[in-house]
């Protein structure tokens, strides 16, 4: 049981770390001489511009920012609630509250990554210059980590749903 508990804690911490990296790091959309995320655009690795109201689709990027931040916060809250429930729950009870909060984190990261994917597909299909750069580029590792963290938080919420407090 102790090994299972360690695995679940390590899995949750890994999920939170992936969410932090995906939210903070500047590699959602990368090209040969630029990289961009939901916070700023950097050209030639030295000229970085914060994304503001002067950028196209700023309100869409704000939705992605909000959902990624909310998913990270919810994942951390779920971990602390899990630790509290670990010591407070009676034997045989399930970690339902932790599972619900982790599922909400999962949905938030899915919403954020889906919105970004949808806007990127619109940009590519319409040949629209997103971030005032050409649409030539590819999804970066932060974007991929966002989808991986979606899967991790989903699996984690399912584990908490199934998990019962035992001796």
Automatic annotation (TrEMBL):
<dbReference type="InterPro" id="IPR004031">
    <property type="entry name" value="PMP22/EMP/MP20/Claudin"/>
</dbReference>
<dbReference type="GO" id="GO:0010594">
    <property type="term" value="P:regulation of endothelial cell migration"/>
</dbReference>
<dbReference type="GO" id="GO:0019901">
    <property type="term" value="F:protein kinase binding"/>
</dbReference>
<dbReference type="GO" id="GO:0005178">
    <property type="term" value="F:integrin binding"/>
</dbReference>
<feature type="transmembrane region" description="Helical">
    <location>
        <begin position="63"/>
        <end position="83"/>
    </location>
</feature>
<keyword id="KW-0472">Membrane</keyword>
<dbReference type="GO" id="GO:0060136">
    <property type="term" value="P:embryonic process involved in female pregnancy"/>
</dbReference>
<dbReference type="GO" id="GO:0009986">
    <property type="term" value="C:cell surface"/>
</dbReference>
<dbReference type="GO" id="GO:0034394">
    <property type="term" value="P:protein localization to cell surface"/>
</dbReference>
<dbReference type="GO" id="GO:0001913">
    <property type="term" value="P:T cell mediated cytotoxicity"/>
</dbReference>
<keyword id="KW-0812">Transmembrane</keyword>
<dbReference type="GO" id="GO:1990266">
    <property type="term" value="P:neutrophil migration"/>
</dbReference>
<dbReference type="GO" id="GO:0005634">
    <property type="term" value="C:nucleus"/>
</dbReference>
<dbReference type="InterPro" id="IPR004032">
    <property type="entry name" value="PMP22_EMP_MP20"/>
</dbReference>
<keyword id="KW-0732">Signal</keyword>
<dbReference type="GO" id="GO:0060914">
    <property type="term" value="P:heart formation"/>
</dbReference>
<dbReference type="GO" id="GO:0070252">
    <property type="term" value="P:actin-mediated cell contraction"/>
</dbReference>
<keyword id="KW-0539">Nucleus</keyword>
<comment type="similarity">
    <text>Belongs to the PMP-22/EMP/MP20 family.</text>
</comment>
<dbReference type="GO" id="GO:2001046">
    <property type="term" value="P:positive regulation of integrin-mediated signaling pathway"/>
</dbReference>
<dbReference type="GO" id="GO:0045766">
    <property type="term" value="P:positive regulation of angiogenesis"/>
</dbReference>
<dbReference type="GO" id="GO:0032060">
    <property type="term" value="P:bleb assembly"/>
</dbReference>
<dbReference type="GO" id="GO:0008284">
    <property type="term" value="P:positive regulation of cell population proliferation"/>
</dbReference>
<dbReference type="InterPro" id="IPR003933">
    <property type="entry name" value="EMP-2"/>
</dbReference>
<dbReference type="GO" id="GO:0045121">
    <property type="term" value="C:membrane raft"/>
</dbReference>
<protein>
    <recommendedName>
        <fullName>Epithelial membrane protein 2</fullName>
    </recommendedName>
</protein>
<dbReference type="GO" id="GO:0044854">
    <property type="term" value="P:plasma membrane raft assembly"/>
</dbReference>
<dbReference type="GO" id="GO:0072659">
    <property type="term" value="P:protein localization to plasma membrane"/>
</dbReference>
<feature type="signal peptide">
    <location>
        <begin position="1"/>
        <end position="16"/>
    </location>
</feature>
<dbReference type="Pfam" id="PF00822">
    <property type="entry name" value="PMP22_Claudin"/>
</dbReference>
<dbReference type="GO" id="GO:0006915">
    <property type="term" value="P:apoptotic process"/>
</dbReference>
<feature type="transmembrane region" description="Helical">
    <location>
        <begin position="139"/>
        <end position="163"/>
    </location>
</feature>
<dbReference type="GO" id="GO:0007015">
    <property type="term" value="P:actin filament organization"/>
</dbReference>
<dbReference type="GO" id="GO:0043534">
    <property type="term" value="P:blood vessel endothelial cell migration"/>
</dbReference>
<comment type="subunit">
    <text>Interacts with PTK2; regulates PTK2 activation and localization. Interacts with ITGB3; regulates the levels of the heterodimer ITGA5-ITGB3 integrin surface expression. Interacts with P2RX7 (via C-terminus). Interacts with ITGB1; the interaction may be direct or indirect and ITGB1 has a heterodimer form.</text>
</comment>
<keyword id="KW-1003">Cell membrane</keyword>
<keyword id="KW-0963">Cytoplasm</keyword>
<dbReference type="GO" id="GO:0001954">
    <property type="term" value="P:positive regulation of cell-matrix adhesion"/>
</dbReference>
<dbReference type="GO" id="GO:0045022">
    <property type="term" value="P:early endosome to late endosome transport"/>
</dbReference>
<dbReference type="GO" id="GO:0007160">
    <property type="term" value="P:cell-matrix adhesion"/>
</dbReference>
<dbReference type="GO" id="GO:0048471">
    <property type="term" value="C:perinuclear region of cytoplasm"/>
</dbReference>
<feature type="transmembrane region" description="Helical">
    <location>
        <begin position="95"/>
        <end position="116"/>
    </location>
</feature>
